[in-house]
Write a structure and sequence with these properties.
By secondary structure, the chain is α/β, with parallel strands linked by helices. The chain contains twelve helices and eleven strands.
Length: 398
Amino acid sequence: MQPGNAIVGQSGGPTSVINASLVGVVESVLKSKKIDTIFGMRFGIEGVLNNKLLDFSKVDSDLLKNLKQTPSSALGSTRLKLQEEHFEPILKQLKKRNIRYFFMIGGNDTMDTIHRVVEYANLKGWEMTGVGVPKTVDNDLFGTDHTPGFPSAARYVAMSVLQGGLLAKNMQRVDQFSVFQTVGRSAGWLPAAAACARRKAGDPPHIILLPERPFIRKEFLAAVQKTQEKYGYVSIVCGEGITNPDGSPVSASETKDRFENVEFGAMGGTSAAMILHRIISDEFGWRGEFQVCESLQMCAADRAVKLDYQEAYNCGKQAVKLAIKGQGGVMVTMDRVSKRNEPYRIEFGTAALKNVANHERPMPDHFITKSGMDVTKAFTNYLNPLIGDLPDYQSLPK
């Protein structure tokens, strides 16, 4: 590899621990004797196109130390999808800064960006190594046991449903149901995390709807009615990307307004939780509420997991180790090697960028119950070591 500099960027949605990965990359490069310095992309690959780069060699070390615990994407993010006309201007800027090492922290699309940029540069005779650092609260990246950011977001969901479940239980004479929606377009890892809120039979959530299984209205309403009759209220968790049997999103429901127009929700948008609320209210005449917290799951540092911070940081460090060895074209992975999590332990591995870019990782079948509206013990066994212990709240006797 030719001597030169490195560049790092963040892309896609943020997480509570994404900056820990950034600091892991930056500190490792600055300590390296094989890489001169490292630049940060302002707003992802747009920073390269617009020549908006930060020289990390001029950033105070105390700032970096504090940044490790700071949520959201410090460099700024982007969802720009690269087109053919972008590659030559990008390469021009990389050559200008003598960039030989290319790091990005993100999900599927980010890994595709690394792969395509580095492949183009090498094809044009500019030697460069690219390594990806995994990140997504959705936990749907191919090739890794889990992704940095997911444990903290999963804890956020579990804590929200644990605390919201107490509210729902105590307010059941006012609201007979509640619907909590998580992010996750095509994978159910985050809504499934709500199951860790349970302490005993009957605890919320009672129904979990996952994108991996079709939403069947008749079966859902039957489960809602049965649960309400048994417990007096119903706690429902859904992923934002749940779909009908024909593949259409539940958020584009058949529910119609007074003019027979499809109801797409309030505030110029829609959500699966809003539609489920309408379906239940229309069917039973109950009062209920829906909770859609959107990006809060991606930046809730007050509920972030210490393990998540450390793994995110170590993934950043590992990316630099791989690049220095000349092992490019890969994303860092975490492989769980402990049996029955006693104790929980992972080792680092790699997955080819082109494979990560072209695949998603849905929840496996053995994590989902036969009804399709709950998760198995195998899933909670998988997740519990990642999110840590939850509070044990008490209820008064009946």
